Amino acid sequence: MDFSRIARPCILRREAYYPGKPLEEVRRIAGDNPLTVLSANENGLGTSPRALDAMIRALQGGANRYPDSTAGALRRRLASDWGLTPDHFLVDNGLDGVITVLGMTFLNPGDEVVHGALTFPIYEGIAGRMDGVSVPVPMTEGYGFDVDGMLAALTPRTKMVFLCNPNNPTGTAVGRRDFLRLLEGVPEEVLLVSDEAYMEFADDPEFPDTVPLVARHPNLVVLRTFSKILGLAGLRIGYAAAHPDLVALALRVREPYASNALALAGALAALDDREFLERSKRTVAAERRRMGDLLASRGVRFVPSQSNFLLVLPDREADGVAEALMARGVLVRSLSHQGEPRGLRITLGTPQENDRAFGALLEILGRKEG
Ligand SMILES: Cc1ncc(COP(=O)(O)O)c(C=O)c1O
């Protein structure tokens, strides 16, 4: 049986998500070197201890019952934190899940999805999975978003605009003025999806405060996740803040038990863990400065970041550098598959991890000595 004959044609044009080499293979390549995983922008400090406690308690309570399909406690908590009502929040299986639900709710074949040319690949992915059309807009010279270019890319077929702020993988951020310009410029019937997976790491005072804006802008959808600063990537939980009518439509598509019981318990408790959040923020800010200064002092180009990773631009092919790093046990992300063959995204981990990774990088580039 040739299943491709009965599959949706748009699926045949796609490839499965490639998460990088399996860790087993990386371990073999790295030999005796300890593994330093800085390839997925996870929190190097671990998981919020309060979340861990809550998840252990939830597990001890039994895994035989289905979780709360409505994610009621978490949505009520988010509502009280943000001064909105619980029906403004859509909780799902990570932001990947939220983006799938948005796509399934709103994208028809041929609908256009505007996004930056060097950004989170899942935006292009949701367009492709729904038989829509991905419209990448070139980045500025400084690897930021070209807000005018994005506005100019809008057509009567545009259904969604994705802004990743701060952007993965460049670390650049759009400030309040440009954000509002984009929001005002996008027609009412086009969704502006602001993916703020890394917003807690941004310390630019001009970084926009967008969740309160959903009360006044029905076409704005703000995405937040527990995967990054709160260290729950393995549990898969994230949410959208949006107009209640939009959320109500999305709930017709969402899997009834999209967020599992451990993730719901962990997320709720993590919101109380200010200590872990602040410590993560401080560590990333200090390491971002320290590693940036190190690279600058050795003449290695990088993009100033508002996030928990650096886009490093060595003067050679990133694939080769990433392989040489892997042989030393350091895992980073080469951007050759994202049209940036000389771009290397390195997550900022603990100071020890960063010393190892950036030390190895400088050695490979022949820039160890200042
Ligand atoms: C910009 C951005 N959005 C969303 C996600 C996915 O987040 P989640 O783990 O909540 O699915 C990531 C993960 O790397 C990301 O970089």
UniProtKB/TrEMBL annotation:
Gene Ontology molecular functions: histidinol-phosphate transaminase activity; pyridoxal phosphate binding
GO biological process, any: L-histidine biosynthetic process
Pathway(s): Amino-acid biosynthesis; L-histidine biosynthesis; L-histidine from 5-phospho-alpha-D-ribose 1-diphosphate: step 7/9
Catalysed reaction equations from the record: L-histidinol phosphate + 2-oxoglutarate = 3-(imidazol-4-yl)-2-oxopropyl phosphate + L-glutamate
Cofactor(s) this protein cannot do without: pyridoxal 5'-phosphate
Class of the enzyme per the UniProt entry, highest EC level: transferase
Aminotransferase class I/classII large domain segment(s): 36-360
InterPro entries: Aminotransferase_I/II_large, HisP_aminotrans, HistidinolP_aminotransfase, PyrdxlP-dep_Trfase, PyrdxlP-dep_Trfase_major, PyrdxlP-dep_Trfase_small
CDD domains, per database record: AAT_like
Record keyword Transferase present: yes
UniProt keyword annotation of Transferase present: yes
UniProt keyword terms in alphabetical order: Amino-acid biosynthesis, Aminotransferase, Histidine biosynthesis, Pyridoxal phosphate, Transferase
E.C. no: 2.6.1.9
Positions bearing N6-(pyridoxal phosphate)lysine: K228
Quaternary structure (record): Homodimer.
Family note: Belongs to the class-II pyridoxal-phosphate-dependent aminotransferase family. Histidinol-phosphate aminotransferase subfamily.
Descriptive protein name: Histidinol-phosphate aminotransferase
Organism per entry: Aminomonas paucivorans DSM 12260
Gene that specifies this protein: hisC
